[in-house]
Write a structure and sequence with these properties.
This protein is an alpha/beta fold and about 210 residues long. The protein is built from eight helices and six strands, in the order E-H-E-H-H-H-E-E-H-H-E-H-E-H. Strands 3-2-1-4-5-6 form a six-stranded parallel beta sheet, with helices on both faces. Helix 1 crosses helix 8 and helix 5 crosses helix 7. The relative contact order is 0.17.
């Protein structure tokens, strides 16, 4: 498990805001502090996909009620994506890393090219320059050549890429099962133990010769 107890989590304007909600719940349940950022397009997607909207002035209270995790109000801090004075703008504010889930192609492009016009972009830039963990969870298909190049640039800069691609060897029965698989893969990269999905243990049928 990471030695520092704070993670930055950002939700941007790609489909799949349920992944962000689920990761937040899992990190909070495990006692981590969270600095939460949501882009303006991210808010629109959340409203459409999850039916959740919030008043910016009451964001902290409304988001923690929505997540329904005990003590979330104490350990989650919400920052406007326009707030370039937030502590996470500086490398002197130590965190264990950052996850952008889901990560839109616009956000990916900004990070891959070193732009810092929003708090999400600046926080990601700080995490990379400080050699901390940055995990990007893109959810886009098909991918253009530009998208592919930006994914490569981001990985070369130090980011880890976890495409929102659920597996089916665990025989998922619900959407929650598929969401948990992707969130579990993110937790794996962060070094956080979990039981969100059944791990592959081999297939005994492979040892039976065909007749």
């Amino acid at each position: 498990m990471a030695t520092n107890q704070e993670y930055i989590v950002a939700i941007t304007g790609a489909s799949g805001s349920i992944y962000g909600k689920r990761l937040l719940q899992e990190l909070l349940k495990r006692g981590f502090d969270i600095s939460l950022l949501i882009s303006e397009p991210g808010k629109l997607v959340m409203s459409h996909e999850l039916g959740f909207t919030f008043d910016e002035k009451e964001a902290g209270n409304e988001i923690t009620k929505w997540l329904a995790v005990p003590d979330a109000k104490v350990r989650l801090k919400y920052y406007s994506d326009k707030d370039l004075t937030a502590p996470i703008c500086s490398g002197s504010h130590v965190t264990a890393g950052m996850v952008i889930i889901p990560c839109s192609m616009a956000t990916l492009g900004a990070i891959a090219n070193g732009l810092s016009s929003s708090l999400i972009e600046r926080a990601a830039d700080v995490v990379l320059k400080q050699s901390r963990q940055l995990v990007l969870v893109p959810r886009e298909t098909p991918l253009s050549r530009i998208h592919l190049k930006n994914l490569l640039y981001a990985e070369e800069a130090g980011a880890k890429i976890v495409p929102a691609m659920p597996a089916f060897y665990s025989n998922p029965k619900t959407i929650d099962d598929m969401v948990d698989f992707v969130v579990g893969k993110v937790l794996d990269l962060l070094g956080i133990r979990h039981d969100l999905f059944k791990r592959w243990e081999g297939d005994s049928r492979a040892l039976v010769p065909e007749i």
